[in-house]
Design goal:
about 475 residues, alpha/beta, Rossmann fold, six-stranded mixed β-sheet, four-stranded parallel β-sheet, elongated
């Protein structure tokens, strides 16, 4: 299931045609409610809405039963939100990352979600006509669908129906190459699928509670559920083994004081490109969303000569499915164990504040929100001169371009200053010249400020890690 082509959504055999459906509740601050338009949108036309909203319903969408707990939490925690057009544009990028082709887009503005179909029966009929006219293979909703909504929509529409979570799971399935990544994706897929299992057709449904009223589907459905639950339990055991191995690896690393710095950020913010720029590695860097699923660790040297491990992690996204956060917890433990987080942000993004808020929501779920964070504003090569000047004047952010390498020295210095493990100390050393190994260790692991020779003794003033100075205690003149 986790391998390419076995996900819950688009298969790689050909580019499937998709109709995208976005729903805007029209309750965001500063955005007036507009009507529920009926529009048919091609990619070569600008996104437009029309009509007047006459609804007087004041019920908050946070109270609506159609909202999942994760979506409600994200909506409540974020102080800024994407507008409808930006949200649909991001969803379009997800579809392209999954290998699909966008045939048409539709945006509806509503006062609240319809508990039966999310969009209402009239809009469902319109979507059905649209899907038929463009010969769509599937309809994609930029929102999570409840099991009831998914079942009703599948019955009313002439093609397959997928929601936002299913699409993200499919992308993860495509990009998971290691055994661990495949296990994590399959677990997330099965946990999402389990409550949505249902019989197809009258012969596969439960007809009643009396003798002779049960269809064969009830037995098959329960069998399917039991098999899926058994598979979920098996995957959890395998991932627990992975977690134990990671714990042992961390314990071995902790025996030597080499702190870990983790890259976190919104998907497609440039984390992998920055990782390659800092480490010289050749991990995949792509404009597609979620190109990196499997964590990478590489050692880098800081200006103080300290060594740290840099970790590249999976990108986050708005309303990241909770099943993915749970399934990837073994991988995301690198974030939890890191001493410093580099929050990589796209400086050229038009909704950077929203992306930042969503990343902080996921960090909160990982109990990592209180960790020291360095805001890394990436992609400054895409900004104008005035925009770059304004960005570089902010003292709490580091402006870089992972593509050109600009700003890397400033970023390394910021990492150096943020680390507390194995602090940098100043010292004076007196080392006999015949101690070649000691002098080599000093040159490799410390910053030498002065060096003077007095006979067969070398006098040095240095700045270096406390751990290394501790091993050279007998050569120190004073603490």
């Amino acid at each position: 299931m986790a391998k390419e082509g076995r996900g819950t959504g688009i298969t790689p055999a050909r580019r499937e045609r998709a109709v995208l459906v976005g729903v805007d509740l029209g309750v965001r601050s500063g955005v007036a409610r507009t009507g529920a338009p009926k529009q048919f949108l091609r990619l070569d036309r600008p996104l437009q809405t029309s009509g007047d909203d006459t609804s007087t319903d004041s019920e908050s969408p946070l109270q609506d039963a159609a909202l999942s707990p994760a979506a409600a939490k994200a909506r409540a925690a974020s102080l800024t939100s994407l507008n409808a057009e930006e949200s649909l544009a991001e969803f379009r990028e997800l579809v392209l990352s999954a290998g699909g082709e966008v045939a048409a887009e539709l945006l509806q503005r509503r006062a609240k979600f319809d508990p039966a179909t999310l969009v209402g029966s009239g809009k469902v009929e319109e979507i059905a006509g649209m899907a038929a006219s463009v010969e769509a293979d599937l309809v994609l909703f930029d929102h999570d669908l409840s099991p009831t909504q998914l079942r009703n929509l599948e019955a009313a529409l002439p093609c397959r129906v997928l929601d936002r979570t299913q699409l993200i799971l499919d992308i993860f399935a495509r990009h998971a190459h290691t055994r661990e990544g495949q296990l994590q994706v399959e677990l997330a897929q099965l946990e999402y699928m389990l409550p949505r299992l249902t019989g197809r057709g009258k012969s596969m449904s439960q007809l009643g509670g009396g003798i002779g009223t049960r269809g064969p589907g009830e037995t098959k459905l329960e069998t399917d559920r039991r098999r899926i639950q058994q598979r979920i339990d098996h995957l959890k055991l395998n991932l627990e083994s992975v977690r134990s191995v990671r714990k042992q690896q961390r314990q071995r690393r902790e025996a030597v004081p080499v702190p870990t710095v983790a890259l976190v950020g919104y998907t497609n913010a440039g984390k992998s490109t920055l990782f390659n720029c800092l480490t010289g590695a050749q991990v995949l860097q792509s404009s597609r969303m979620f190109a990196t699923l499997d964590p990478k660790l590489r050692q880098i040297d800081l200006p103080s000569r300290r060594k740290v491990l840099l970790s590249d992690t999976v990108g986050f996204i708005r309303d990241l499915p909770h099943t993915l956060v749970t399934s990837f917890r073994a991988t995301l433990e690198e974030v939890a164990q890191a001493e410093v987080l580099l929050h990589v942000r796209d400086a050229a993004s038009t909704y950077g504040d929203e992306q930042k808020a969503q990343v902080e929501i996921v960090l909160g779920e990982l109990d990592s929100l209180s960790k020291p964070r360095i805001e890394v504003m990436n992609k400054i090569d895409l900004l104008s001169a005035d925009e770059r000047a304004g960005l570089e004047s902010r003292s709490h952010e580091v402006a870089v371009s992972a593509f050109t390498g600009e700003g890397m020295d400033k970023l390394l210095a910021a990492i150096d200053a943020a680390l507390h493990t194995d602090p940098i100390l100043d010292a004076e050393l007196r080392v006999p010249q015949q101690e070649g190994a000691v002098l080599a260790a000093i040159d490799a692991g410390m910053v030498v400020h002065t060096r003077a020779y007095n006979g067969n003794v070398v006098h040095l003033t240095v700045s270096g890690p406390a751990s290394l100075l501790g091993r050279l205690r007998k050569y120190r003149l004073r603490d």
